[in-house]
Prior knowledge:
This protein has 430 residues and is of the alpha+beta class. 50% of the residues lie in helices and 14% in strands. Helix 6 (170-180) crosses helix 7 (190-200), helix 13 packs antiparallel against helix 14 (385-396) and helix 14 (385-396) runs antiparallel to helix 15. The longest helix is centred in the N-terminal third of the chain and has 30 residues, at 33-62.
Amino acid sequence: MYCTMSVGLTARMLRWLRRMNLVLSIRWARMPMKIKTLVVIWLVIFIGSWAVYFKYSSYTELCREDACRAIICDRYHKGIITGPLCPALCDDHTITLNQCLSSHPANQVYQGWLHGAKQIIMKCNLAPIFHDGIDREMPYERPEKGSSMDDFREMLQDFLERNLGKGEHNALQTRILNAADINNDGKVTLAEAKSIWALLQVNEFFMMMILQDSEHTPKLEGFCGDTYFVQRVDTNRLYGIHIPWVFEIFLPTSYRQAMDQWFTPSWPKKAKIAVGLLEFVEEIFDSSHGTFHMCKTSHTNIGYTNKHDLKMIDLRNLYPAEVLKETLTEKTCSKNSDCELTEDCSSMCDETASRCTGELVQPNLSKICVVLHDYLLKEVPAGIKDELTALLDKCSRLTTNTEDMQVHHSLILNNLKSLLWKQISDVQDS
């Protein structure tokens, strides 16, 4: 009886909505053009005002430059932390910040200038003051007072083996210790050790230390405590248009995809950017420090300079294979979807053991080819269209459980690079 009443009410409500829709349509059709224009203008003003209000309230929540400076400089003046850029940030005030780029209150990001001459990006970690339920090591708790240099070296060695696996990490350890020794006196003080240790807990900083020699990642400019500064390179996103979300939600997907393609460089320049991206995938596939996985391969994380050289915009979602394997194998599961960390990083479920296998399903190359598929096939030269389409399709289907995956990976990667480089060379020669 209850179900019958509910169905009856729903049916009557639908009939009422249809009648209202019909009435409004008729009234709109009979409405004079001036009234229609006023209604449209009123709607635009209403949506615009709402968007401005939302942006302002979001800004005050996301942008806490004063809190960042106050926390960092208080700890610096108390001698808890140090860093090569602490004096410029806290004493000389020669670091000026002029634009907030934050996307989360816990991760403060600002654009600014160092000594009025060099453009920089400041990244300030406020995660410890946000009680989100995640079990984090509080910054500056380690190493403890009284620890020796040998103790700190052992801490670093354990950290590197835990994150990168067993192996030879002496060169990386030396690089970290040299970065910590800000006055170059061959010693690491407690404040220096606490600062670099806190920074190593920030995944992006750790990735930057490892990929310091890569031409595809931003360069570190210095730090103060666990706040770090990177080189700001004028970059365009892979698709060079950014639409405010208020308008984007009303855009059909097909229109958005078409608009994306309007704001891309010419095809040879897109090919050069793609080659840089493939080179970056090659760098992290089997580096001297192991393999690293991209757990977010959205085109918004990929940029390029005015010379169309690839620059990775965000390394926060790049993780060592060892870390991902450990995280996944600790997860219990009953189906494959239980083993998904992100859309781009997931493994299979071993149902007999009720544990995730820890072996990622998709290699980086496969994820990147999905991103490059529409990007490169738009306005592709007719002479290579079929070959490039076949390569990108084969690449997109590549999985880690493919027999001889490493051979297929290298073959597809080299074929793609060769095909694209040939086109770029032919254009330059002509």
